[in-house]
Write a structure and sequence with these properties.
The chain is of the alpha/beta class and about 500 residues long. Helices cover about 30% and strands about 20% of the residues.
Length: about 500
C-alpha cells in the first residue's frame, strides 16, 4: 500500500511553523544499464512526500533533548546519546537494518597555557596550548629559544633545524605549509624540548593541535605573529630564554555513529547519505547539524513508506544512511566509519551525499563543487562528483532556486569518503562566512552578516532557522536519494 501524499507546505505555513518555535567508486560499464521501471518515479514521489513540517518534528525533538541535557548534544554527552537513541529507535520501527558503531575519542581540557619571556623585565605572551599537547613539568619548561629557519616550508623539514642548535632548547617556528604534527615532529627529532609556533597573519595566537594524544610528542603551543617576530629578532642578537607552562588533561570518552540501510537493493552499488548528529558543547546545534540529521531522517522514513524495506518493493540499489558523531572534533565519526571498511566495501559504495547545515538563518544555497568549475581551493572530487553536482544543480534550476559552488575544503564528513576515491556531493547553506552584497541580491538576506550568526553558539536553536532554505534542501535530499536508489545511470561510465 502506497504512502499518503502530503501537499507541500506553503510559504505562509512555513513562516507560521517558524514562529511556533518561540560518503574507490563502483565502476560502471561504458554502456549505461537499462532504465529501472521506476526510474524517476521514486524521486518525484519522495520530493512530494518529504515536507518541512515532517522534518521539523525531528528538530523539535533534538531541541528538547538538548534542553534536558545541559543545552547541547555534543559527542560523548547524554544529549548526544539521547539523540542517537531517537534516530535508532525511529528507523528500527520503520523497518531498517539499524546498528550502532561505537568508537573512542579524547577530549582535551587545558588548565594552564602560559609563555613568559625571562630577563630583567619578564613579560607574559598571549598563548594557546595545542590540542593534545604534552604538558610541561610542574613549574614549566625553562630553556633558550632556537628559531627554526623561515623559508617556503618553515619548520617543516630537518633542514630547517641546523645540527646541534636545538638540543635542550624550545623551537620557535613560523606557521605555514605543513601540518602542526610535521612541525612538531621535525623539532622533536632535532632535539627540541618544546615548540612554540607563531602565526603567519592576524593578531591572534595560533590555535593548533593534533588528532590524538598519541601525536603529542613535546609540549606545543601557539603565539601571535607580532610576538613571534619580536622573539625571532631578539634571538638573532643574543640568547632569549622563556618559560613555557602547559597543563592539559586528556579524557577518554566513547560515542557512537548510527547506521541504517535498506533491507534490499544491490549491495555492490550502495548509495550512502550522511550528516553529523553531534553539536558543539556551546549549544544545541539545531542548524549545525540538527537540520541535516532531521532531513536525512525524514527522507529515510518516506523511503520506508515507499516500500524500501519490503520484499520485492525495495529500490534497485541499497541505500545506507549514516548519522556521524564527533564531527565537531575533527570528522572522527565518519573517519572511523570509512577506516573500518574493507577495500571491497569501499568499492561497493557508489557515491556519498553529505548534508551539513541546511537551514542557516541568512542562507546561501551552496552545492559542493564536484567538477572544480569555480577553480578555488581543493580541486575536483573523485570521478563521479561532477555528475552529482550536475544532478543537484539541475534540480535546483528546475525549481528556480539560485545556487553557487562550495569548495571541498575538508570541513565536513565528505572528507574521508573523497580521500578514498568515493565520489561525493551535497549541499549546505553557510556557516560563519559573511554574505556578500552580490549573494544578498541573488539569495536574499543581509549582506555583511554571517550566513549563521549563531554558528557554534548557544543561539543555534529552533528560533534561528530559515525554514524555506530547509524546505529546499529537503527536496534536494529527496530527489538525490530517490534518483540514485533506482539508478546510477546519471553518474555516467567510470
Amino acid at each position: 500500500m502506497g504512502a499518503i501524499r502530503h501537499r507541500r507546505r506553503s510559504i505562509p505555513a512555513l513562516a507560521a511553523l517558524a514562529a511556533a518555535a518561540v560518503a574507490a567508486p563502483v565502476l560502471l560499464t561504458a554502456t549505461p544499464a537499462a532504465a529501472h521501471p521506476r526510474e524517476g518515479r521514486l524521486a518525484k514521489e519522495l520530493v512530494e512526500e518529504v515536507t518541512a513540517r515532517g522534518a521539523y518534528r525531528h528538530l523539535k525533538k533534538f531541541q528538547q533533548i538538548a534542553d534536558a541535557n545541559g543545552g547541547n548534544r555534543a559527542a560523548g554527552t547524554p544529549g548526544h546519546a539521547a539523540s542517537a537513541s531517537y534516530v535508532y529507535d525511529t528507523l528500527k520501527k520503520a523497518g531498517y537494518q539499524v546498528s550502532y558503531q561505537d568508537f573512542d575519542f579524547h577530549e582535551a581540557h587545558t588548565r594552564t597555557e602560559k609563555t613568559t619571556v625571562l630577563g630583567e623585565n619578564p613579560r607574559e605572551l598571549a598563548t594557546t596550548a595545542f590540542t593534545f599537547t604534552r604538558s610541561t613539568p610542574a613549574g614549566g619548561l625553562t630553556a633558550p629559544l632556537a628559531p627554526a629557519r623561515v623559508d617556503e616550508t618553515p619548520g617543516c623539514t630537518a633542514d630547517d633545524y641546523p645540527a646541534d642548535t636545538f638540543a635542550g632548547k624550545i623551537a620557535l617556528v613560523k606557521r605555514g605549509t605543513c601540518t602542526f604534527v610535521e612541525k612538531q615532529r621535525a623539532a622533536a627529532e632535532a632535539g627540541a624540548l618544546g615548540v612554540i609556533v607563531y602565526n603567519h597573519s592576524g593578531t591572534a595566537p595560533v590555535r593548533g593541535g593534533f588528532s590524538s594524544p598519541a601525536e603529542g610528542l613535546i609540549p606545543s603551543a601557539g603565539i601571535t605573529l607580532a610576538d613571534g617576530e619580536a622573539l625571532t629578532a631578539a634571538a638573532a642578537k643574543g640568547e632569549v630564554s622563556v618559560r613555557l607552562e602547559l597543563d592539559q588533561e586528556h579524557v577518554k570518552k566513547t560515542t557512537r555513529n548510527v547506521i541504517a540501510e535498506t533491507r534490499g537493493g544491490r549491495s555492490d552499488r550502495v548509495v550512502t547519505v550522511g550528516a553529523h548528529l553531534d553539536s558543539v558543547p556551546e549549544g544545541p546545534g539545531i542548524n549545525d547539524n540538527g537540520s541535516g540529521s532531521a532531513g536525512l531522517l525524514e527522507v529515510a522514513l518516506k523511503l520506508a513508506d515507499e516500500g524500501a524495506n519490503k520484499k520485492g518493493r525495495g529500490p534497485a540499489n541499497k541505500v545506507r544512511f549514516g548519522w556521524w558523531s564527533a564531527e565537531e572534533l575533527g570528522l572522527l565519526g565518519s573517519e572511523h566509519y570509512v577506516a573500518q571498511l574493507s577495500e571491497k566495501q569501499k568499492k561497493d559504495i557508489a557515491l556519498y551525499l553529505n548534508f551539513d547545515m541546511i537551514a542557516s538563518p541568512n542562507p546561501v544555497q551552496f552545492v559542493y563543487d564536484g567538477d572544480d568549475s569555480d577553480k578555488t581551493g581543493a580541486g575536483a572530487g573523485p570521478a563521479g562528483s561532477a555528475q552529482i553536482e550536475a544532478l543537484i544543480n539541475g534540480f535546483l534550476d528546475r525549481k528556480g532556486k539560485p545556487h553557487e559552488g562550495s569548495d571541498f575544503d575538508g570541513r565536513s564528513d565528505y572528507g574521508p569518503f573523497i580521500a578514498n576515491g568515493i565520489p561525493a556531493g551535497g549541499t549546505f547553506t553557510g556557516a560563519e562566512g559573511v554574505k556578500t552584497a552580490e549573494q544578498a541580491a541573488r539569495h536574499g538576506g543581509t549582506a555583511g552578516a554571517p550566513y549563521d550568526p549563531n554558528y557554534h553558539g548557544a543561539g543555534d536553536t529552533l528560533k534561528n532557522l530559515d525554514l524555506l532554505a530547509f524546505d529546499t534542501n529537503l527536496d534536494v535530499i529527496a530527489h538525490a536519494v530517490g534518483t540514485y536508489a533506482e539508478s546510477l545511470r546519471s553518474l555516467g561510465a567510470r
